[in-house]
Design a protein that fits this description.
The structure holds 2 protein chains of 2 kinds.
Chain A lengths: L1 H28 L7 H21 L8 H11 L3 E5 L5 E3 L27 H13 L4
Antiparallel strand pairs in A: 1-2
Helix pairs in contact in A: 1-2
Chain B lengths: L14 H8 L2 H6 L8 H7 L4 H16 L3 H15 L4 H14 L3 H17 L4 H13 L3 H14 L4 H14 L2 H14 L4 H14 L4 H17 L4 H20 L2 H5 L10 H24 L9 H18 L1
Helix pairs in contact in B: 1-4, 4-5, 5-6, 6-8, 7-8, 8-9, 9-10, 10-11, 11-12, 12-13, 12-14, 13-14, 14-16, 14-17, 16-17
Classes of the chains: A mainly alpha, B mainly alpha.
C-alpha cells in the first residue's frame, strides 16, 4: 500500500504541476480566450489522483471505540514503529494508559506501576538474590 | 522476552530485563545531553530532547535496582545540574538514591526524618510525601504507612495512584472492605480503567467466595472490565471463574430466598450467568490460540497469564467429560 500511495502521489503531483503550468502558459499567450477543455480535465484528474494517493498513503486509523482500542493494546502490546530517540531507545506505540495504577499484576503483584511509591529496597533485594543464584 | 526499553519500560521488569536496562548506562553516560557552551549558544547547540530526561530517570531506577551505584550517582548529578537540587522531583529522586544505599533500618529511619524535615518546610511536596509512605512500607510499618496515606488522600483526593496504593496496603493487611472502598475511589477518578475494575472484582471475589452478593458484584465488575477492553485476559478469566462459582449457588437458592436477601444487590439470572460463562470460555480459547500462533515478543499477553487461562479451560474440560 505504501508503494501504491507514493506512486499515486507522484503521478498526481506531476499532472497537477503540468496542468498549472499549461494554464499559466495559456493565459499568458491568449489572455482573452477561455481555457481549453484538456487542461481543465487534466487539472481535475490530477487533483483526484493526488487526493486518492494521500488517503491511501495515510497511516492506519486507530479504533475509535474504547473497547476495541483497549483490546488492540491488550492483544498486540507495545511495539516499535521505526523511530528512535537520540539515545538509541526505540519509541514504542501507545501502551496501556492505566499501567501507572499498578493494578495489572493483582494484589501483592510485583509490577512497575505506582512509580511514586517505588520500593527500591525490595527490588534491589530481588535482583541481588537473582544475581547470587547464578543470574539465569 | 520483555523488551528492554528505557523510554517506556515494561510493566513488569524481571531481573534479566533490569540487567539489560542498566547495562545501557555507559552508553548514555558517555555523551552529555546538555551543552557546555555559554547561555545563548547553549540553547542552539543543546542535544537534549523531552525524552532525554525520561530515559535518565528510568536509567537511574534501573541502576539503583541492579546495584550500579556509581552510575546512579552520575545520573543523579546530571539531573541535579539540569533541574536544580530544590526541584520537588529531584528531592524525591535523591531520597530514593539514599534509600537504596541505606544499609540497615537505622539509616532508613534517618532518611525518614530527613523527609519529615523537607515536609515541614514545604508540606505540598507530594513526591516526598509518597516516598515517606514507601519508606514506612519498606520498614514493615504497614499501619503507619496506611495512616500517612489516608492523610495524603484527604489532602489530595484526586490522586488515583495514592488511592490504588492505599487499596493495596489495606488488601495486604486483610482489610478487604477498605481496599474495595479505595478502589471505588480510583474508579470515580478514572471510570474507564479496566484494570481497576478487574481489581475491584478480584477483591469482591476474595471477600466472599461463597456469598451471592459478593460474587454478583465481582461478576458485574469483571463484565465491565471486558466491556472496556474486548481482549482483556484477566477480565475473561475472572468472568469464567466467578460464573462457575455463582451458577451452583444460584440454582441452590430458590426464588423465595432471593427475595429475602438483605443486600440491595440483585443476583443475576442463571441463564445470563451461563451465557457470560460461554462468552468467556470462547474468548479465552481465542486468546490462547492467538497467543500460540504469534511469534515470541509479538503478543501483548503475559505468558504466565496465558498458561493460567489454559489450565482453567483444561480443568473445565475434565469436569464436563
Amino acid at each position: 500500500m505504501a508503494i501504491l500511495g507514493t506512486a499515486l502521489n507522484a503521478v498526481g503531483l506531476i499532472f497537477l504541476t503540468h496542468a498549472v503550468y499549461s494554464s499559466h502558459e495559456h493565459t499568458a499567450a491568449f489572455a482573452h480566450t477561455p481555457l481549453p477543455l484538456d487542461i481543465t480535465i487534466e487539472l481535475l484528474v490530477s487533483i483526484f489522483v493526488l487526493s486518492a494517493g494521500i488517503v491511501v498513503s495515510s497511516p492506519q486509523l486507530k479504533p475509535i471505540q474504547w473497547a476495541k482500542w483497549g483490546g488492540k493494546i491488550a492483544r498486540e502490546g507495545q511495539h516499535g514503529e521505526g523511530k528512535w530517540t537520540r539515545e538509541g531507545e526505540e519509541i514504542l506505540s501507545e501502551g496501556d494508559g492505566f499501567a501507572f495504577l499498578g493494578l495489572d499484576t493483582g494484589i501483592g503483584g510485583n509490577g512497575e506501576g505506582r512509580r511514586g511509591f517505588w520500593d527500591v529496597r525490595s527490588k534491589r533485594k530481588e535482583y541481588a538474590e537473582w544475581a547470587k543464584a547464578g543470574g539465569k | 522476552m520483555v523488551q528492554a526499553n528505557l523510554l517506556t519500560p515494561p510493566s513488569r521488569i524481571p531481573p534479566q530485563t533490569a540487567l539489560q536496562l542498566s547495562q545501557k548506562a555507559p552508553l548514555i553516560l558517555a555523551s552529555a545531553p546538555t551543552s557546555s557552551l555559554p547561555w545563548p549558544l547553549s540553547l542552539l547547540f543543546s542535544r537534549e530532547t523531552p525524552e532525554t530526561w525520561a530515559i535518565h530517570e528510568n536509567l537511574l531506577l534501573a541502576a539503583l535496582r541492579t546495584g550500579d551505584d556509581a552510575s546512579a550517582r552520575q545520573i543523579l548529578d546530571r539531573l541535579t545540574t539540569r533541574f536544580g537540587a530544590d526541584n520537588e522531583r529531584m528531592i524525591a529522586l535523591k531520597g530514593l538514591y539514599e534509600e537504596a544505599l541505606a544499609k540497615d533500618d537505622k539509616e532508613l529511619e534517618k532518611i525518614f526524618n530527613d523527609y519529615e524535615k523537607v515536609l515541614k518546610e514545604d508540606p505540598t511536596n507530594m513526591s516526598v510525601r509518597k516516598r515517606r509512605v514507601a519508606v514506612l512500607k519498606s520498614l514493615g510499618r504497614t499501619a503507619d504507612a496506611i495512616t500517612a496515606l489516608t492523610v495524603l488522600v484527604e489532602n489530595s483526593p484526586t490522586d488515583a495512584e495514592a488511592w490504588a496504593e492505599l487499596s493495596e496496603l489495606y488488601a495486604s493487611t486483610g482489610a478487604l472492605g477498605q481496599a474495595i472502598f479505595c478502589l471505588e475511589e480510583v474508579l470515580l477518578i478514572m471510570p474507564n480503567a479496566w484494570s481497576a475494575h478487574a481489581q475491584v472484582a478480584t477483591l469482591h471475589y476474595l471477600s466472599g467466595s461463597t456469598s451471592i452478593p459478593a460474587l454478583t458484584l465481582a461478576l458485574r465488575h469483571f463484565a465491565r472490565s471486558v466491556e472496556l477492553n474486548d481482549s482483556y485476559l484477566r477480565g475473561y478469566y475472572g468472568l469464567k471463574l466467578v460464573s462457575q462459582k455463582l451458577l451452583p449457588l444460584l440454582s441452590e437458592s430458590s426464588v423465595s430466598k432471593r427475595n429475602a436477601d438483605e443486600d440491595d444487590v440483585a443476583p443475576p439470572k442463571p441463564q445470563s450467568v451461563k451465557k457470560l460463562e460461554e462468552i468467556a470460555t470462547a474468548k479465552l480459547g481465542e486468546i490462547i490460540r492467538q497467543y500460540s500462533a504469534s511469534k515470541a515478543g509479538q503478543s501483548g499477553y503475559d505468558e504466565a497469564e496465558v498458561i493460567a487461562a489454559r489450565e482453567l479451560l483444561d480443568r473445565d474440560g475434565k469436569v464436563e467429560r
